[in-house]
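Dear Dr. H.,

I hope your travels went smoothly. While you were away I took the liberty of generating a structure for the chain from your last submission, since the lab meeting agenda had it listed for discussion. I wanted you to have the full record in hand beforehand rather than looking at slides cold. The sequence, exactly as received, is reproduced here:
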Amino acid sequence: MESNNPHLNRILEQQLERTAKALRENRMEAVVVGTKQEARDALERYLFPGCTIGVGGSATLDEIDALTLFRSPAYRFFDRYTEGMTDEERKQIFREAMFADVFAMSSNAITETGLLYNVDGRCNRVAPLLYGPQSVVVVAGCNKIVPDLPAAVARVMRVAAPANAVRLGKQTPCATTGICAGIGKGDFPICEGCQSPDRICSGYVISARQLVPNRIKVILVAEPLGF
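The corresponding predicted structure, in token form, is as follows:
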């Protein structure tokens, strides 16, 4: 989030580098870029001719125009957004993405201690993050960076989940009130109190130190992106 104040910019640079260093210590590759265009360029460097690509639903990827990149004839894109697909065809796309060469996504929150925190409904986004694709590329704006895991949990409950519920047209308490129904009902990171059939918070995943080094690549962007 570049500003006209060099002192604030320096603080942001330090936060990004501190977070990248912690991610690397947790055996994730991490790079810091300045702009959306640089993020797209960095993402492209992780692709190769003929590779298969899957994606998790992401406002961040939309904002950097990643889908146009993925739809290049140079790659085989498992395009979950193809118009006219049946529910079964879309489910098949989700299954194919589990075995893609490259899976692209964002993260609901990234801690300065080097953790990724993600909450999913169908879990077709967090499942490939955990296992399957050879390479997972996470693109995240500076607005996703938080100090620690409790702050990551709070960010999802107060920002990411409500905003995504609104984006997806869900009839959940958070879409109506702008805050998770579980706020104030304990510290455990599950949205207690939400009984909506539209609930999008079903799977909770913390990615810490990795067994397979550098399988997860994180592109940190010095601009706010997504929710």
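Two observations you may find useful: The longest strand covers residues 135-141. The two ends are 14 Å apart (CA to CA).

With kind regards,
E. W.
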